[in-house]
């Protein structure tokens, strides 16, 4: 049933996209921002305050979900599961954001491409040339595919609604508080480390998926030799394998508000362009369906063997 819920959620995401109003992740982000303003102080105890903020935001939601599951009729709980997975996924939204950048690049409209890519990355988009815009968008598609699609599917299949909701909440807190600057270095540390732990297995499954669907030999070589050089233990395998699968070169220097950040090179091949953005979207989309088709086939074989008494 969990696999069927994931199928239905992906179809719902494809048909209608993310909720345009009353999105729970948006509401959760607003609460997190307000709580951070109250608890985050520059003078000491930042880690403890960050842990307290995370517990205040996460624990009540999980307790409510466990309480609902304890009494709610199964058909109604299936609806809750569908809504939880649907709101956690953002495959269509990811494709739309990346597609808008690729379309602007195909038209030769660099100012529009910069504007579109600024919606999905934190780097200084106005300082990016065309390959820089394409690299930023391609990296975003590969990494956010792991966070917003594959990890959501993984945690729902492993731990149901509490699992997918916990992952989405922690991932949101890491996106908001996980910066290595004076304001968030200590306050956001617990959220960042917990997000790393929750994404460790999904990230490597994602890297394996990219490897399987793209240039497999190059993807595996890049994953094996380049991933450790990246500053994120989970983004490294995902982006190295993704870059190799696409046959492009990612990483390198990137402009941010605080200056140029020198990053290791990932992948091998040509400079990224509009095609690499679309290629990354295709990897994520095909990978999501591959996961579910493989799981459905596995369930079918298990039922056949058990039903046949084998």
UniProtKB/TrEMBL annotation:
One of its GO terms (biological process) is cobalamin biosynthetic process. Pathway: Cofactor biosynthesis; adenosylcobalamin biosynthesis. It is found in: Cell membrane. GO terms for molecular function: ABC-type vitamin B12 transporter activity; threonine-phosphate decarboxylase activity. It comes from the Bacteria. One of its GO terms (cellular component) is plasma membrane. It is a multi-pass membrane protein. Keywords: Cell membrane, Cobalamin biosynthesis, Membrane, Transmembrane, Transmembrane helix. The chain crosses the membrane at residues 47-68, 148-166, 288-307. Its main location: membrane. InterPro entries: Cobalamin_biosynth_CobD/CbiB. Belongs to the CobD/CbiB family. Converts cobyric acid to cobinamide by the addition of aminopropanol on the F carboxylic group. This is Cobalamin biosynthesis protein CobD. It comes from Marinobacter salinexigens. The lineage of its organism: Bacteria, Pseudomonadati, Pseudomonadota, Gammaproteobacteria, Pseudomonadales.
